[in-house]
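Form 7-S
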Amino acid sequence: MKHHKVRTYKSAEHLDRADQLAWKIASVASDPVRIEEPVVDMIGNRIIDNAAVAAASIARHPVVSARAQAEAHPRHPGATIFGLPSDQTYSPEWAAWANGVAVRELDFHDTFLAADYSHPGDNIPPVLAVGQHCGASGEDLLRGLAAAYEIQVDLVKGICLHEHKIDHIAHLGPSAAAGIGALLGLSTETIYQAVQQALHVTTTTRQSRKGEISSWKAYAPAFAGKMAIEAVDRVMRGEGAPSPAWEGEDGFIAWMLSGPKAEYTVPLPQKGELKRAILDTYTKEHSAEYQSQALIDLARRMGPKIGNLAGIESIVIHTSHHTHYVIGTGANDPQKMDPKASRETLDHSIMYIFAVALEDGGWHHEKSYARERAARPSTVELWHKISTVEDPEWTRRYHSHDPKEKAFGGRVIVKLKGGSTISDELAVADAHPLGARPFKRPDYVRKFRTLAEGVIAPAEQDRFIAAVERLPSLRAGELSELTFSVDASRVGVPASYGIFDWKPATQTAARRTAGS
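Output:
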């Protein structure tokens, strides 16, 4: 890896294209290195993982709405949409939109945490959709996804967005554009312009993950993927982009990040170096914010030691800066303690999550978020006894570059009413590569079959898994096999009208819905 210094340049200063971050990213994406077997295997795992969580969310309201929007844009050859028959195809940017929301809705797929946060699996819907539309092969898809993961992880390692309240999709737009460029074998020049365009249009604020969190949390990554596809399409037609996007005097670093005097260091593979970043990422066993994964496992372990939970006086979770300030009491979000809060908000409340995991001895992607579950009196009482504090050591480990030391968990101290305490700690989740039970291909398949049960017919599950197993040998035009269909009764029906449904016969009903 080569570590690149990135800073702002005044307009009067000359900065060669070859020295711009966007060009360096494009050079990595356009470098046709081989994809080694562990990377091939992990890409297959993540395709399975995405399909699993998409199946579980197939009838949830945001997913139904996104799919309805996409269905207004049929196209041939086009791309497939999760849940719909594979012979029904849609414009790739809209298919990526619908699939991206389905993948992200439950916050249950892969993650990478470093200087910033990310869910690298969000790259898969746009890259796959373009691959399906353009008749790409399995090898093409592997090349594109290896590049997308590489750029995503490297940007997350080098540039912190959240300290400036910028949402992490600002790294996703460029990585998806780079991945699409690699998939299609585009020139460095084309990818360079597309990466900059994608950054320019996907810079949004973190209010989407603050306070009363809405369904936009699921839509935001899908938006970045959709914008990446449109950016590549536009640049392929000969158009340019704001340049230099990161280093410009009025650019991203100068006005969105740490200002004109700031300097960032972004690691990127050198020419000919393999793209292995996906191997640094990790998926979720539990449908909750990643920093809660180890703490859910710790709650499972501590529950039997505590015994009667009514005897608890207080619980303090000593953890990292991120966990304390984003999903802990350091966020100062009263919604995180509210039984009427949205699912998205509860997903970002470690106090709620730890309470439920203690009571239930585990976590369920639907039952643990149910309205009646959140309102259970014993849960509310326990929930409000839990607080978090930042521990400098856990913060240091969170930011460590040593994978053997890097930690996302914490130390929990339970004070009982009699005055005694029970404490325990866990650094990484059981499913983490360094955890007690690292996820392998059978674990991804099991997760898929568990979440697909009652949604996808067993024969269709088998067909999909078999297609992923053949990923490297899928021929041009066969990427449409990397989807799944369900019975029409399973996909849900939109509960309201939108612009794409607007017809004279529906105007009255649409107005009534919009005004209700």
